[in-house]
């Protein structure tokens, strides 16, 4: 085992988790205000929702080129480039004179976030001990969730002083601080691009060589992304349909997010000790069941129960997609593989809310909840079918 592969989570903390936590906290501050910025520029609610959705579109668009870029210039340089583009994108959001420029800036933010996240994923895949892989990935996902959870509170405090611009100032400060941390801290042991004279597998050859994995296990990951994103949409919609106050809905959603955050390390430990299926199948089953039971919620108690079940299921899947991607990635062309792997999840995350909207428009919100719940059951089946047997289990002694 190499020295690089022998790193522990404590050793990874300052160089890997700290910059990611700061970066995600900064971007978390602006996530709730993009819609408000769009409406302030005269956009209708529907147009404002489209502008907010461009963040996800940027993430989808950035997945494949980010993998190629990491292979060419390395993880650290890719993150510095992403942060360097994120700051002007945030400034453009602050000072956008119209919705068109705002939408372009939001899409660029999504692209930068994709490059940053994929860089950390690619690094951890090679840097951490194999027996700690799931815990490393779930911790990375956990610090991102903590940042996304705490960022809006910092943004809200800044907005009391400087209006909507305050949230963007917090984001710029977060991205800038993350960049400073990257520059000042010593480089991580593994941060290498493929040497210029070396044989690069290339993106499309890597996709062709791994098409079976992307077609089978990737389909399950797509559904995982859809389930995770749909809970963020369907809980507020169901609360609104019950006539609950926005503050009450926000509290219920926050409780669900709190349960989610508390489980990231136990989820990783479960996958490392008992295999990936031990977390993947129960997590998707619980998420699917929570969606199916949601139409039975007739008040705040029922909504809270469903939200807690969703939070538990989502928390149990912390780091799952990154861990499975790391397990499946080839030694040659790893970054090129992780790009389309992340694309599978990103497409699911973008498609989940769209599925809810389409089924609700064609039928009812209850029908949408049941359909998405069925996707959770299907995801559990596909993951159980296609996760390699014994994946993540420690060797027998």
Automatic annotation (TrEMBL):
It holds the Pfam family MFS_1. It comes from the Bacteria. InterPro entries: MFS (IPR011701), MFS_dom (IPR020846), MFS_trans_sf (IPR036259), MFS_Transporters (IPR050171), Sugar_transporter_CS (IPR005829). It is found in: Cell membrane. The chain crosses the membrane at residues 21-43, 49-71, 78-97, 103-123, 168-188, 247-265, 286-312, 355-383. It is a multi-pass membrane protein. The keyword Transport applies. One of its GO terms (cellular component) is plasma membrane. GO terms for molecular function: transmembrane transporter activity. The keyword Membrane applies. Residues 1-391 form the Major facilitator superfamily (MFS) profile domain. Keywords: Cell membrane, Membrane, Transmembrane, Transmembrane helix, Transport. This is Putative MFS family arabinose efflux permease.
